[in-house]
Design a protein that fits this description.
Two copies of one chain form a homodimer. Chain A is α/β, with parallel strands linked by helices and 495 residues long. Chain A has two domains: 241 residues, 3-Layer(aba) Sandwich (Rossmann fold); 239 residues, 3-Layer(aba) Sandwich (Rossmann fold). The longest helix of chain A is centred in the middle third of the chain and has 29 residues. The N terminus of chain A is likely disordered. At the A-B interface, helix 1, helix 2, strand 3, helix 13 and strand 8 of A face helix 1, helix 2, strand 3, helix 13 and strand 8 of B.
Chain lengths: 495, 495
């Protein structure tokens, strides 16, 4: 962690002499940012009475307020409490070309817990690991993340509190909690040091700024912001020129998944009569377990991936037959909207994460990142390679919050697909389901097989395993999905 | 209100014979809807035990679940309670090409209040007027709204409740409340009749469906949906062919506003020294009143409109200097995003309505509807003419919830604008602020004057008056805005 700030106090005159340049540079920065393809995330944390609010208000005065927003996290709302912990931070993230300033950041949520016992400290550390992952992921996605910690020595803090108390206009700002944090100074300092070191990383470093002299402090924060912005812009332009669309990644990373895919027997027999009997039995069971999950305020997320025409839609309809319409949403995933494109690629999935006890069914999903985006070059090699871990971690967030995650890959043979395409073209009310893109994807069948294989082996975690479903026979596939879903939900509920 | 349904029971055989056609028609409807530029809103209300949930689940089975969502409104969340009553309905509205099914609709929220005294009935009626306005507005915006009321006679309801109770699989569904509603049948029937007649209108009619025979009921609902959809599609295509870009509305509707605009003295003197002294005094006062509003959980919404280069940005910066950065958001309004374009034009403003005690500053606003959209033909004449009342009602929603709405038109002379455009072009860090569109708008100055005049006279309500600010002198304008804001907030708080 770098140390900034100067022990000598800055005179008012010297300060005001520097202001016009700083302010002009900040406005130029905002203009440049507006047409850039990345967001800026500025966290202002610090000890009590170090002037976090002051710094933020001063930055607000220096910047054009139309280009950014300021957030402070208070008690979570009930809509936030019912979702994984990181959801409330995700929803505030600025789109490309804009900036958000976070008073205290998410870090304040961890520090407010004020952990004391070893168990609480363990939870604290786990929360910090989440934050580090969150920030690392955003940085990898191109965000400029700047975290500033406003520091004040113990005696300087005491002096500041006394100063505030002695002025009638500011005395109301000093609360008993402030004095408590003065008495607890050493312990809190160790805690925030622990927080900073756990969340310090190249893409999201902490800058400690001494805040004894407010004028030096203000300029130091502006300087950090400006210089990190310049460096970021330079790095991005170098990156852009170095970035060539290289090999489309048709070499498998982990052949085990591909082998598993290719060795799946596809043709299963199941008579209509036998199917209907079993289906109705299992749908009844599914209805019961989904209601049981809902009663325990557990959410369920279904993920459907599979070849074009592999029967995802039909399988989803069977499932939804067994669930109360007021409790589920089906999210068809295709091209992102422009608001979605302006965010980290996971943002558009986070926004649909269900509330407690509700169900979201994703018809195609975040796995597009390692399938179509990998093969079509929409993601760079570095991006899709990194994605395997990002997707695992995303699902871990869900599962740790209590969400039950069910993932299905619907597998059909290439011949079977051809048969279905031709059938769709021949049937008037199915014709809308097939277009040129489907035929294009079909020509890349072998590349897709490799990408699917890698996906299966690299993202089948214990908390969210892939179910590979033989789907040449639709009846068999639908029944399989219902059965696996029941079993996994029952296991998760411990029934 | 039309009556559907048939007294004779439909046999299972006759029912099943009709199903394939109905289901195929529903799927075709969904395919057509997908590429249409309007949303479908289907409300299923009805008496207890009439089978609302059943009908919705059946529709869910017949329709492709990827094309719509189902909503039921429970207790408002805290994020909803802190905003005007209609916010929670607006946020669920489907975009163009999609459908939403509402179990009970917003109407259930009114009926749950169960008004008894004359005062409660008055509130009930006021809520219904809001709903009627809400639906009328959406219908005028192109939405297809279908509201179905599932009816059951008193004796049929009793029979149904007994039937449910006698079966061990369904007995749990009958609650003491259900029997209470049976005893209260006549009063509740009068209440829901009153609700239906208050919210029945051409663009959003109620259909009463007799529900004694579930099979007839299901088909009746599907038939209403299908036939309304067909009629709506036909009407829209006729409308589209009849729709010609006619006169751009350069004749004033209400010359009073234009006269007021043209007679505003623009050149006010105010020395820098005198300005700074007054400004600091008034900013202090503004800071206090905004904090007082926040403490009373009152939100503030500022609306800034004005000529290009009239100084909206600068005025906003002065205001935000006096407000804690964590309490406000500035929303720059320009072209809508594609998600916004797929909704009613007010949806994108509703989404930023502040929580209790917070501030939103709109830099340009919903008034674009009667300014740029009127003049550029983005809205048809019928649309922008209707908008005056829609905008007034929108603001009334805010004000009735306790939001303080402050509206400013910043007025400069045409010569002054030219001077500022030239100045911007000559200054490197201001050049980004001016483009070809600004010059184009300038050429339409006189048309804009007329549109602004109409806006001022048609949307200056007592609850949200326009403040017309002479802005040739920036200092004068900024001070005026701060002063008027203080006074209006103080008046609203009664201090």
């Amino acid at each position: 962690m770098s140390k900034s700030g100067d022990d000598r106090r800055l005179s008012k005159k010297a300060y005001e002499a520097r202001l016009p340049d700083v302010r002009a540079a900040l406005v130029r920065m905002q203009v440049e940012l507006k047409s850039s393809k990345f967001p800026v995330i500025l966290v202002i944390g610090g000890v009590e009475a170090s002037g976090k609010g002051e710094v933020i208000n001063i930055l607000n005065g220096w910047l054009d307020p139309r280009g950014f927003e300021t957030f402070a996290f208070h008690e979570p709302t009930d809509e936030e409490r019912e979702r994984p912990a990181m959801w409330r931070y995700w929803r505030t993230l600025p789109p490309d070309g804009r900036m958000a300033i976070y008073a205290g950041g998410w870090h304040a949520d961890a520090l407010h817990e004020d952990p004391r016992s070893a168990r609480e400290l363990g939870q604290f550390d786990a929360m910090l690991r989440r934050f580090a992952w969150f920030e690392g992921q955003l940085a990898a996605g191109g965000a400029l993340i700047i975290k500033v910690w406003l520091n004040l020595s113990k005696s300087a803090q005491r002096g500041r509190l006394r100063e505030l108390e002695s002025d009638t206009r500011t005395a109301w700002r000093v609360t008993p909690d402030d004095w408590k944090s003065q008495r607890d100074y050493d312990r809190l300092a160790r805690l925030s040091e622990r927080m900073r070191s756990a969340t310090h990383q190249p893409g999201a470093p902490w800058y400690v700024v001494d805040s004894e002299d407010p004028r030096s402090r203000n300029l130091a924060v502006a300087d950090i912001l400006l210089s990190r912005f310049r460096i970021h812009m330079r790095a991005r332009s170098r990156l852009a020129s170095a970035r060539r669309r290289r090999g489309r990644g048709i070499v498998p990373l982990r052949p085990a998944g591909l082998r598993r895919l290719l060795s799946l027997p596809l043709d299963n027999k199941l008579s209509q009569a036998s199917y209907e009997k079993k289906r109705d039995k299992w749908l009844g069971r599914l209805n019961r377990v989904v209601r049981a999950a809902s009663q325990e305020r557990r959410s369920v997320v279904w993920v459907f991936e599979g070849w074009d025409a592999s029967g995802k839609g039909g399988a989803i309809r069977r499932l939804t037959d067994a669930i109360d319409a007021r409790d589920f949403r089906v999210i068809p995933v295709s091209k992102p909207t422009d608001e979605e494109k302006a965010h980290h690629y996971l943002w558009r999935f986070w926004r649909h994460v269900p509330r407690a006890g509700m169900v979201t069914i994703y018809d195609r999903s975040w796995y597009g990142r390692v399938l179509v985006e990998r093969l079509e070059g929409f993601a760079t090699e570095a991006e899709w390679r990194r994605a395997y871990r990002e997707l695992n971690e995303f699902e871990r967030e869900l599962v740790e919050h209590g969400v039950i995650v069910l993932k299905f890959w619907l597998h059909i043979g290439k011949d079977e697909q051809l048969r279905r395409f031709r059938d769709r073209e021949a049937t008037s009310y199915k014709r809308h389901k097939i277009d040129a893109e489907d035929w294009r994807n079909r020509r890349k069948w072998q590349s897709y097989e490799i990408a699917v294989g890698d996906m299966l082996s690299l993202t089948s975690s214990r908390h969210a395993p892939w179910h590979l479903v033989a789907a040449n026979n639709k009846r068999h596939a639908r029944l399989e999905i219902i059965k696996s879903s029941c079993r996994q939900i029952e296991a998760a509920l411990g029934v």
